[in-house]
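Problem statement: downstream parser choked on a complex file, so we are re-checking the raw output for the 4'-deoxy-4'-aminopyridoxal-5'-phosphate run. The parser issue turned out to be on our end (a line-ending mismatch), but while we're here, posting the original submission so the record is complete.
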Amino acid sequence: MAHPHLWHPFTQAKTAPDPLKVKSGQGAWLTLEDGQQILDCISSWWVNIHGHAHPRIAEAIYQQAQVLEQVIFAGFTHDPAEQIATRLVKYLPGALSRVFFSDNGSTAVEVALKMAYQYWHNQRQHRPQFLAFTGAYHGDTFGAMAVGARSPFTAAFDDLLFQVEFAPFPATYWGDETVEQKEAQAIAQIAAKLATGSFAAIILEPLVQGAGGMRMCRPQFLQQLQAIARQSDTLLIFDEVMTGFGRTGDWFACTRAAVEPDLICLSKGLTGGFLPLAVTVCSEKIYAAFYSDEAQKALYHGHSFTANPLGCAAALASLDLLIETEAAFRGLEAQHQRRLVHLADNPQIERIRCTGAIAAMDLVTAGDPGYFNQIGAQIRQRSLSKGLLLRPLGNVLYLLLPYCITEAELDLIYSGIDEILASLPS
Ligand code: PMP
């Protein structure tokens, strides 16, 4: 039964089924109030990289809570925050060396946009525009919405969103013979725009656009993008809120693609699924433009819970686990691929793609391929009755599994998908 005083996100009140009440979570599994077990195939919105309720993270929070639970972060610091900063910059490309904390993916993006814009402002240069990509999603706050694709989800606010130039994202898939052409066209278009010298930064989800439908591009595209960004001195922001922490089969999409952005946004996987935390990490060059004796050059952005010690303790434990599961996240691409080849001939599937832990397929739709396509809703319902949590994005069915997933569970998921697709009206 829907609670009379709760408002759930992404719910059309009249048509959505009642929310399912979750009693507990363990590893990749959730247990509902009625005892039904459901395999979380999307890591609860891509957050729970180690599955649910990992005892090591729970213990780390418990220990930290007895020492320091929260403290103002302006003018104060603490061990858990310093340790996160020291460790993160070790895993990130060399130039990224200043860590700014916030609370969630959207705010990590807001911070990156403010840093990039004010970076030029502080140097008395007028670069009023951002370049973003079609199909992008960067969060639900106003700045993040502005640099995301306009969609039915933003429609009510479109008049309020600042103007952004959008370039085509050269999405590719298995057997795509046009990818180089799409990349060349995108790069040519972007280079022409950047040549105006009016762009503060380019922002994108590198290698995989998430909420826009798990659309994947090649590392080569990111390398070319970096080259033209450097030529025009435009900053490059990588939103790795989803792709960070092993999701693309390497520590980060930028390390997998061998590209060094000027700013990177991280959240979801950083937290291990326990407490909200995010960071925007920038280069020393950017930091230097804010760090001066002139008051008006400071970055005036600080959340109440900035660098919350409990969140940092959870993130440190999550990083430890990530190191221990490196072989698992590096191996997931091959595990997916072995199974995806068997789906390639399924008449319900139009296109397949896979990068690291992320596997996605576009389903054939009769008519409307948009967000509210019926096929997504049908799959959501049918998968639950098979004990799988799948939430297609429109007609895109995808998997984003926790790293604790076993071969047997993978088999269960793929055979479940086979059965669900066979049960759909053709
Ligand atoms: N950027 C990307 C790439 C995301 O996938 C998301 C969340 N799906 C966000 C930003 C926003 O993160 P949050 O929901 O934590 O605000």
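For whoever reads this later: Residues 105-122 form the longest helix (18 residues).
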